[in-house]
Specification:
Blueprint lengths: L8 E5 L2 H8 L7 E4 L1 H10 L4 H4 L3 H6 L3 E3 L7 E6 L7 E7 L9 E9 L1 H9 L3 E3 L7
Parallel strand pairs: 2-6
Antiparallel strand pairs: 1-2, 3-4, 3-7, 4-5, 5-6
Length: 136
């Protein structure tokens, strides 16, 4: 990561309809923020993953393949999708409550999971395939 200055990233809208349709969690429409401190935390924990995920962050959040709630992290859900050219899948942990200070949903972490981790989460019912949006 070096001495590069980090800036807040605003990858777009929370997929609220998909979250409700897939997980049954009702949330208000709103936008997502990946704050500089959260990026720093993610870089520290998963230094090889974050630079590969950030260019795809908007796509992963807006059109996830899987959504999940492992219930071990209350108030957070997992948004999972594949990234071209990378094995496994990217997992983005998001808050399901808007931050009272800034009004955004927040990225808590981002990293890759292996295919076997993905399969295990699906088998346990933690990750569910997102129902596609109807074409308009």
């Amino acid at each position: 990561m070096g001495k590069n200055k980090l800036f807040d990233i605003f990858p777009g809208a929370m997929p609220d309809d998909e979250i409700y349709d897939t997980l049954g969690i009702e949330i208000d429409p709103g936008d997502v923020k990946f704050s500089a401190p959260a990026q720093k935390h993610a870089h520290k924990r998963h230094p090889a993953d974050v630079p590969l995920i950030i260019p795809h962050l908007s796509q992963i959040i807006s059109s996830p393949t899987y959504l999940g709630d492992d219930h071990r992290n209350p108030g957070k859900i997992e948004v999972v999708s594949r990234v071209p050219g990378v094995a496994g899948a990217a997992l983005i942990a998001l808050t399901v409550e808007k931050n009272e200070t800034d009004g955004f949903y927040h990225v808590c972490s981002s990293y890759f999971i292996t295919q076997s981790e993905l399969d295990k989460k699906r088998d346990k019912g933690i990750l569910r395939i997102v129902k596609p949006k109807p074409k308009t």
